[in-house]
UniProtKB/TrEMBL annotation:
CDD domains: WD40. This is BRWD/PHIP N-terminal domain-containing protein. The keyword Repeat applies. Residues 19-73 form the BRWD/PHIP N-terminal domain. Residues 682-696 have a biased composition (Basic residues). It comes from the Eukaryota.
């Protein structure tokens, strides 16, 4: 009783507090006075004050804070962004000045101290980066340091362009590293795939055979094969060690849209997957030991109506799940954990074509991007794929976009996960990159800088803070996505290196350190055999028309420029297998012929080739024994393979156990339905038993069994 009475008193006090406040304001004349037309002041009541200020809403003060807060954040950044409070102090105060935000410079002793057994965490807005000397001195004293302090994000500002090399005659839309990071592959619209050295920019080999634009490339996890798909509807596979053709795969009737090697690593059997504009998904089986491909794929034709195309694909970490996107808005899921791949789901949440899809780096989640202006983060739970919606129309507080941009229909152009899967990034057709929390779907940052659509998003292989973007504006940006800041910007130009290509046929190599090794190569690098005519057999394998040899067995080629003129001998030594090369060029050089439009320069090299090329049998044997792309180190290969096997087993168990649980639940539900049906049948038998006996002599109902049968049919329909 005492507690209930005290609570009533408290409630009465709370209700009467506003009334007491109003009374005291009026009693002590604290309210603003009213002025009459003669300028005389008059006291007024609280109600009169409210009536004279009808434009002031109940949340007027809150709206003021919401408007002022972002403006102040831009001028003087707070400790915690997008958190505004009237009661804030220090860097969170609305009255803060630049003087209040000066950071305290940490001394060496601060880096040497351990906080609960861990190195200290730097404040998000620490300011200028700390001294690396003090950081590493603290590491020597304590034995540990965090990656973010030992390698601050500002280090990426020291990345520079080592070399810009012209190596193709058409646009280059495919570029990839091998599994070791020592080699770069480029695939161009001039039908060629080229192999380059990451560390000095040398052109190592040209893979010929395709008759149309290269649409996608993939390197297997063992670093022994490269596959290239083309608009000529053919997939060609080469051995990376010798550049010999391994397979010519013809299973599509449309252009190849994506290629993926499966990470699944159980036994010698492997899979490669291709999708095509013909609406099919092809699973190509190959043997790890013999490198032989099955000539006929397991094909899924996903064409519910004419014109449907498969656009993209992505494997899970363990290789058990494959997700594909298409023009009919459907995401199709495949499972590879049984004897043969099988389709397990069709997800129809998007309302426009799904042209970007990517599994996370460690887990069973994947991200899909669509032209409907949304992206979805999917997760496999209880044998169902459930998603978190990311709406590109979502705005961040303090957004200053124009009205035209606000009414533009958003479309997702590219998607990416960061290295630890905590963040996803989406590129939108309004040139903005949006950074999202992958677990909650909260929009964290808008990254502004591009002036055209972005179609390249690449995450750093081991630094979860860093993301690279490139677009049609010719710009390359390196971002710190945890802070939402721009680290470095380049214009038209493996963790320590990154490579870019452009629509003019250039390869651009960026990295840390000295560029001196790249100064030894010319700006234009072609082999004189790059564009020589090929002849094809019935299986689409190719021979060089002039020498009647397979391209990988031909003698070492010459290095020439874009006009077809051979480079000096000092550059010819860069050709793998070069030993002794003698040139006798009696025809005039093709100075600027390609640029003037008379001939296509290097394309005419079979008519303007060097007259003599002296290569001994020893030279040819050395050329054949060359190793263009080395295999992955055995220790690293085994460690990564064990990881993929472990993840594959987890994914298989996740799906198999979930399917068993679901089938068990369905069987229980069906048993309960059957028991209800049988009880209804027994009731019907008792109800109509006498009716059957009365009419048995008339032959209207011959037996009780037929009666129960008709009732069973009814009961099934009822249930």
């Amino acid at each position: 009783r005492r507690s209930s009475s005290s609570s009533r008193r408290l409630g009465l006090t709370a209700r009467s507090l506003p009334q007491v406040l109003v009374q005291e304001l009026e009693q002590y004349q604290l309210l603003p006075k009213r002025l009459d037309w003669e300028g005389n002041e008059h006291n007024r009541s609280y109600e009169e004050l409210v009536l004279s200020n009808k434009h002031v809403a109940p949340d007027h003060l809150l709206q003021i804070c919401q408007r002022i807060g972002p403006m102040l954040d831009k001028e003087i950044p707070p400790s915690i962004s997008r958190v505004t409070s009237l009661l804030g102090a220090g860097r969170q105060s609305l009255l803060r000045t630049a003087k209040d935000c000066r950071h305290t410079v940490w001394k060496g002793s601060a880096f040497a101290a351990l906080h609960r057994g861990r190195p200290p965490e730097m404040p998000v807005n620490y300011g200028s980066p700390p001294s690396l000397v003090e950081i590493h001195r603290g590491k020597q004293l304590t034995g540990c340091s965090t990656f973010s302090t030992a390698f601050p994000g500002t280090m990426y500002q020291h990345i520079k362009m080592h070399r810009r090399i012209l190596g193709h005659l058409s646009a280059v839309y495919c570029v990839a590293f091998d599994r070791t990071g020592h080699r770069i592959f480029t695939g161009s619209d001039d039908c060629l795939v080229k192999i380059w050295s990451t560390h000095n920019g040398r052109l190592l080999s040209t893979l010929r055979g395709h008759s149309a634009e290269i649409s996608d490339m993939a390197v297997n996890y063992e670093n022994t094969l490269i596959a290239a798909g083309s608009c000529d509807k053919i997939i060609r596979v080469w051995c990376l060690r010798t550049c010999a053709p391994v397979a010519v795969l013809q299973g599509h009737t449309g252009s190849i849209t994506s290629l993926q090697f499966s990470p699944m690593a159980k036994g010698p059997q492997r899979y490669m997957v291709s999708t095509g504009a013909d609406g099919t998904v092809c699973f190509w089986q190959w043997d790890l030991e013999s490198l032989k491909f099955s000539p006929r794929p397991l094909k899924f034709t996903e064409k519910p109506r004419p014109g449907v195309q498969m656009l993209c694909s992505s494997f899970s970490v363990g290789g058990m799940f494959l997700a594909t996107g298409s023009t009919d808005h459907v995401i199709r899921m495949y499972f590879l954990g049984f004897e043969a791949p099988e389709k397990i789901a069709e997800l129809e949440s998007h309302t426009d074509k799904v042209d970007s899809i990517q599994f996370c780096n460690n887990g069973d989640r994947f991200l899909s991007g669509s032209r409907d202006g949304t992206a979805r983060i999917w997760r496999f739970e209880q044998l169902e794929w459930r998603s978190i919606l990311l709406d590109m129309a979502t705005r961040i507080s303090g957004d200053t976009s124009s009205e035209e941009e606000r009414f533009m229909k958003p479309k997702v152009t590219m998607i990416a996960w960061n290295q630890d899967d905590s963040i996803v990034v989406t590129a939108v057709n309004d040139h903005v990159l949006k950074v999202w929390n992958s677990y909650t779907g909260q929009l964290l940052h808008n990254l502004l800088g591009h002036a055209d659509e972005v179609f390249v998003l690449e995450t750093h292989p081991f630094d979860s803070r860093i993301m690279l973007s490139a677009g049609h504006d010719g710009s390359i940006f390196i971002w710190d996505i945890t802070k939402g800041t721009k680290m470095k910007h380049y214009f038209n130009m493996d963790g320590q290196h990154f490579a870019c290509t452009d629509s003019h046929g250039h390869l651009l190599i960026f990295g840390f350190g000295c560029s001196k090794p790249y100064e030894k190569i010319p700006d234009q690098m072609f082999f004189h055999t790059d564009y020589r005519p090929l002849i094809r057999d019935s299986n689409n394998y190719v021979l060089d028309e002039q020498t009647q040899q397979a391209p990988h067995l031909m003698p070492p080629p010459f290095l020439v420029d874009v006009d077809g003129n051979p480079h000096p001998t000092k550059y010819q030594r860069l050709v793998p297998g070069f030993r002794r090369l003698s040139l006798d060029i009696q025809s005039p050089p093709n100075i600027g012929l390609r640029r003037s439009g008379q001939v296509e320069g290097v394309r005419q090299m079979h008519q303007n080739a060097p007259r003599s090329q002296i290569a001994t049998e020893r030279d040819l044997q050395a050329w054949k024994r060359r190793v263009v792309v080395p295999e992955a180190p055995p220790g690293m290969f085994r460690r990564l393979e064990d990881f993929r096997i472990e993840r594959g087993e987890e994914e298989r168990n996740l799906y198999v156990i979930g399917r068993k649980k679901k089938s068990f639940q369905l069987s229980q539900k069906s048993n309960s339905v059957v028991s209800v049906s049988q009880s209804r049948q027994r009731t019907c038998r008792r109800k109509y038993a006498n009716y059957g006996r009365r009419h048995a002599g008339r032959g209207e109902l011959s037996s009780g069994n037929e009666s129960s049968g008709s009732v069973r049919h009814v009961s099934r329909r009822t249930s």
